[in-house]
Amino acid sequence: MYNKNKLDCLVIQFAKFPVKGNVKTRLQPLLGEDGCYEFHQRLTRHMAQQLVQSKFFSVLALDQLQAHNMLSEPLNDLPIILQKGDTLGERMMNAMTWGLSHAHKVLIVGSDAPILNETYILKASNALDTHSHVFYPAEDGGYVMVGATLIEPSIFKNIPWGTQDVMAMTQARLNTSSHTVAYLETLWDVDVAEDFSRCEQVFPMLTHNIKSPS
Fold first, then answer.
1. Bridge partners, residue 105, by sequence
2. CA distances from 98 to 91, 102, 154, 176 (A)
3. Half-sphere exposure of 198 toward its Cβ, with a 13 Å CA cutoff?
4. Given pLDDT bands bounded at 50, 70 and 90, which one contains residue 81?
5. Which residue, of 115, 135, 162, 174, has the greatest Cβ tally within 10 A?
C-alpha cells in the first residue's frame, strides 16, 4: 500500500570524510596527498550541488563526522547522516534500510561520478516505478548508483568492493532472485589517472590548479 507519509524518492550521497592520505589514494602518484585531498572535496561538493539543485530530497552519508570547513558551504542545504557498518556493503545496506523507512524508493550515489546529474537521477527514479532495483554500471566494473524499493541482502555481502567484479557478481546474485532489475547506461567515475584526464576535459573546474607532487 502506498504510504502518503513517505517520500517518493530519497537520494543518499555516499562519501568518505576528507582525511589527507585516506582519499583518492590511487591518484596519489599523479596528484600527491594534497592534490587527492583537494580533489576529493571538490568531487564531494560537486555531487552535493547536483543533488541540492535537483528536485529530490537528498542526504549526505559520511563514514565519520568531525568539524570541517567542507561541511559548511555549499553543503549546508544537504542534511548529513553517518554511515554505519564495518564494510562498504554493510554501510550501504544499512543506509538503504534507513532510507526505505522514510521513502518508497532510495537511490545511493557515490561522489566520484561527476557526470551524474538530475537527468540521470530522474531516469533511475522512474525505473523504480516498474523495477525493484536499478543500477548505473561503471566502466571499471563497479557501479556508480544503486537504487531499490526493497532490501536484497545478498548484493551487499561478500562483494569484492573496489574491483572489476562488483557489478558482475551483483548481477549474478540478482539473476537468481525474483527481483526485477533495470540496468541503465554505463557511466564513468574517477579513480585512476586516465579517469582524471577525462575529468580535466569534461569538468575542468574540478581539476583546475590541483598540484602534482614535486
1. 9
2. 11, 7, 17, 25
3. 14
4. very high
5. 135
**Helix or strand or coil: residue 192?**
coil
Cα dihedral 54, 59, 63, 66 sign: positive
- Kindly give the pairing relationship between strand 133-137 and strand 103-109: unpaired
Return d(Cα 150, Cα 10) in angstroms, integer: 13
What is 38-75 written as a DSSP string?
HHHHHHHHHHHHHHHHSSSEEEEEESS----GGGTTTG
Q: Specify the pTM.
A: 0.93
pLDDT digit string, tens, across residues 164-186: 999 999 999 999 999 999 999 99
pLDDT band at 45; cut points 50, 70, 90: very high
CB 142 within 8 A of CB 190: no
Q: In what order do the strands lie in the sheet with 57-62?
A: 80-82, 57-62, 7-15, 103-109, 143-148, 133-137, 181-183
Q: Are strands 7-15 and 57-62 parallel, antiparallel or unpaired?
A: parallel
Which of 190, 198, 90 has the alpha carbon at shortest distance from 140?
A: 190
Tens digits of residue pLDDT in 151-164: 999 999 999 999 99
